[in-house]
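If you are new to this repository, start here. Below is one unmodified record pulled from the training split, so you can see the exact layout before writing a loader.
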Amino acid sequence: MVEQFIEVDGLRTRYLEEGEGQPVLLLHGASLGSSADVWERNLEPLAGYGLRVIAFDQPGFGGTDNPEDYSVAYRRRFILQFMDALGIRKAHLIGHSQAGAMAVGLAFEQPDRISKIVVMATGSLLPPLENAKQSGAREGEEGTATEPTFQDTRALLEHNLFNHSLITHAEMQTRHRMSTGKNFQAFLERSHAAQTGGAKEAVPLWQRLDQVGVPMLFIYGKQDRGSAAERAALLKHRYPRLNLHVIDRCKHLVQWDAASQFETLGGRFLSS
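And here is the target side for that same chain:
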């Protein structure tokens, strides 16, 4: 694995890369502390399927500069700008959490730039349960009101993992470093942008998945928050031919809790 930096839209952008072949971009979610490092354990196994695997820190995350625009729309456009900077015309996308919806949104806007999509743990692409009330932080807004302590960072990780033994001291140090300083300030800016942003889409993306023109694979953890497994069943009922998998003993960080299953499902899907 090689850590590199490149300038994209005036921002010094950090990314990790492994392997050769068809390019695959790994898109992390938007919770506090998210970065390309969330994919570190998955890079080499996915590259083993003959893929060029690239995980990058989105604007305002990890080692990438903070932007002026904190909207989801900007981060979605930035994906294409990052591809342009690396000379990549067309790529597969693997989007975790909020980034799954970003990937699907790009497939509507620029289908000629996207080969295949893997959606992972994206609650906003699932239909709501009948009579259910939305609870907890919205997708991409999970964090703390003040700069987190080391224990706050651990609590957020534990909330998203079924297997807490995966949280090593080294993982904790990285996650905490990515949750403080300029990254915490960016989290506050994103939260503000989400609250003051424009109107929601008239028709939710989950109601338009049959209009997406690229192959898609959906993966969810059975124990993920927001009744994900039940709602995934509703999505499968609506779209019987949808390539959808629900993995047991797995919460929101599918790429950690179910690393081997994700790598096998994703690797075979993207390389076929």
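Two things worth knowing about this chain: Residues 2-127+139-271 form a domain with the Rossmann fold fold (CATH 3.40.50.1820). The mean pLDDT is 94.
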